[in-house]
Amino acid sequence: MTEPVVDLVDDPAGVPRRTATLLGALLSRGAAVSVISGAQTLASMVAGLAALGRQVGGTVEGARVRRALADSRPGHNLEVLFSELGFGDLVAASPPTPVLEDFHNDLALLLAPDLRDAIAAAEEGAVNGSAVGPMPQAEPVDPVDFLVGFWAFSREMAASIDALVDWLAPASPTLVSGVGSDEPTQGRLLR
Amino acid sequence: MPIRVHTDADHPGPPTEEATRASAGRRLPNIADQLVDSVRRVLFAFGRSAPRTVIDGPACVRLDAAAGTTATTTVSVGNHQAAACVVIPALSCLTGAAGERWAPVHRVDVGQRLLLAGDRTEVGLAITIDDALPTGTYRGELVLLGVDGTLPIEIVVSRGDPS
After folding, report:
1. What's the rounded Cα separation, in Å, for the pair A105 and B116?
2. With contacts defined as CB-CB under 8 Å, which chain B residues touch A43?
3. DSSP secondary structure letter of residue B161
4. Contact B47 A3 (CB under 8 A)
5. Which residues contact B105 (CB under 8 A, 6 or more apart)?
6. What are the Cα distances from residue B83, in Å, to A48, A169, B47?
7. Cβ distance B39 to B130 under 8 Å?
8. Is the Cβ–Cβ distance between A149 and A77 less than 8 Å?
9. Is pTM, for the whole model, over 0.80?
């Protein structure tokens, strides 16, 4: 059987993922955060994590996590917090931050070979946040989706940084000599 | 000695629990509305959508497997963008023709999680077909988190050869 081939490409309806546009997205985030309150920022991030949680909740592993949380005291208590404190209404009306996409874009920016050029262009006004695209729509939020999204995002963030480190410094057996080390050798365990 | 609390019209006592709740209930929606308006105005001005990645792939990956075996496939994933991207594959739950939901035991292996521009990697998928699983066609998808679109997967389960 022929191996299925999948290509990851730029969104034809959006802006391409290039260093300049990734930088533009980061600049727009920084600009927005500098003029809105912490509560607004938090609400949009929670909405974004919940959106991720809805997507992950459809996977085999995510469904198991979601089921466990939804039927638990933490899940019920989170619903109480969202509903009784009015936070759920604020989150549901807030545009979701694309948390995972932002993280991936920031990671790509760290690997960009032409970052300095892009920053120079930004300082000349050639890059700005308005080139990034339309705002995602707000939608109702299930608090459990937020927990699932938080779980997925945290896990993927750690795994992505692990992948970055593995790429930069592939794991291999190493032996570091202790001769000439500045490390202190006195103590109760190392004598 | 008992403590007496004096109240009068000019110096009302502490609000009751009901009054506090009612007052908070009146304030919260107003505050929330104002915050939401501010968020909408500011974020609309700056545009908060991130540059995105989409999938360009086959319409469906079809696997044939007998009950009691393991269905496997390998998907080649390439990065055709100018920037690096991350491959995070996950298998969705599968649905049978009668609407039954199947969450199979499975394994997803990624050769290379971080893809620089032009890089390509392989994603291995192994799905265990339970002995007791009714025969039929089950549909689901391979999800790549953080990427728009999915790769539809169709598994046709048959009864294993008794010999």
Report:
1. 12
2. 35, 39
3. P
4. no
5. B127, B128, B130
6. 23, 20, 21
7. no
8. no
9. no
For the complex shown, is ipTM > 0.90? no
Cα–chain center distance at A105:
9
Strands B114-115 and B85-86: antiparallel
Which of B76, B57, B85 lies closest to B121, judged by CA?
B76
Q: Do A32 and B35 touch (CB under 8 A)?
A: no
Q: Is residue A45 within 8 Å of B133, Cβ to Cβ?
A: no
Let me know: does A60 contact B91? Beta carbons within 8 Å.
yes
On whether the CB atoms of residues A150 and A66 are closer than 8 A, the answer is no
Q: Residue B41 is which amino acid? A: R
Q: Tell me the C-alpha distance between A31 and A24, whole Å.
A: 10
A-chain CB neighbours of B113 within 8 Å are 159-160, 163
Residue A77's identity, in one-letter code, is: N
Q: Which two tokens stand for residue A108?
A: 């790509």
Nearest to B32 by CA among A97, A138, A144: A138
Give residue-wise pLDDT tens across range B10-54.
444 455 565 555 555 555 556 666 665 555 555 544 444 688 999
Contacts of A159 (CB under 8 A, 6+ apart): B88, B113
